[in-house]
Amino acid sequence: MEKIIILDFGSQTTQLIGRRVRELNEYCEILPYNQFPDDTTDIKGVILSGSPFSVYDHAAFRLDLQNIAGRFPVLGICYGAQYIAHMRGGKVENADSREYGRANLTFIDKHDPLFEDISEGSQVWVSHGDSITVLPDEAIKAASTADVEFAAYRIGKQKIWGVQFHPEVFHTLDGSLLLENFLAICGCKRQWSPASFITTTVKALRQQLTNDKVVLGLSGGVDSSVAAVLLHKAIGKNLTCIFIDHGMLRKGEFEHVVNNYKHLGLNVVGIDAKDYFFEKLKGISEPETKRKTIGAGFIEVFDREAHKIKDVKWLAQGTIYPDVIESMSITGTTIKSHHNVGGLPEKMNLKLCEPLRLLFKDEVRRVGVELGMMHQLIARHPFPGPGLGIRIVGDITPEKVHILQQADDIFINGLHQWNLYDMVWQAGAILLPVRSVGVMGDERTYENTIALRAVTSTDAMTADWAQLPYDFLGKISNEIINKVRGVNRVVYDISSKPPATIEWE
User: Which one is catalytic: 2, 26, 78, 86?
Assistant: First the structure.
């Protein structure tokens, strides 16, 4: 399969470059800067990402360009552009002030294929402390801004381009067009699509798994659901899905999800393990300890149930591409484990199958649509594995879960009824360890506080609080206080990420 290789120098937007290329229907892979593949058969072009470093920093990441330049078209972005210029005899200097924010292209070489159909004045986004002040001898200026003379350049003989702005971000208005032009320079056919992914993946799964039996841990979320349907398409009855109710799911979610999966023809084993988890969580209030306790409990229950199925050889997971990328540092060492059911492959002596490991979250949803899955399954908000356990601040009891389930149900149903659900990335209610005085009827109350949280985002790396209508918030607040016994106060969280996180624990 033809591909673009994106070499990561540590930029926060490297994943975004990959997503933009995929949106243009071209397959790409993100790799650490020092792990360029030995097999270059299908490589059509190379993109060098930005970096938090200056090219002069002692700790800066350096790449030998000899094996790349001249063999493939190259696009350097920000640090990538500066590094190419620096290594070829140009000059990179610290700018008088950090250049950050919107800028406009004031000069564009109309003959440069990278800028085809991009007009003078096109808005770009810049974010750099250094700037190229002298180009290498063989380089030609391709674009400028008011403050940056060499906003873009090319070394035409070797098909090398550098841009000192970020075409991958939303604020560069013609960024997708620039990337599209680069793909044209590379001679890409741009045949990557959900339909082609399904066809090739189903074929590969059949070859990989043959007649072996596979077990998959369902969470009810988008990733595991799409993975299950894809596997079912490939191996049918040889797939068994285990869905564990740890007691901290949303109201009615266990029955709802099991029914949805049966509707899809999946073989689903539903396990009621509420009492087991509540017993293990007694008296535990520290957030990370709660997470680890729930995770360890899940492994124990899943292992027990999976062993009831004869001759299972594979464990399937809904791991997606950002998990894979974040699991590998740019020096090639593992920095974060993303096994959805960490420890299970080793504990159960099973081989691992991850059919979605090359997809971004938005691509997973597109594959789900192509597979004919119900909108309510693939458009669901992300929901944490520990469930409401990390939306109850403090220790967990069945009584607290019951209160939170009711409040959360009112909030989520309200978002649907007001046609706000699809405008929000993630939403939920949080039960706070705060009691306050209130008045209900003629009686004084001293009851619990519910915080509502709703955010907008594209990838959960950053998030802004959702500016929901006041009328909606007022209605939901009244409904929770009137219908949920034990709650007399509702607040709305208006914190963004960063500095806050989406979840409270």
Answer: 78
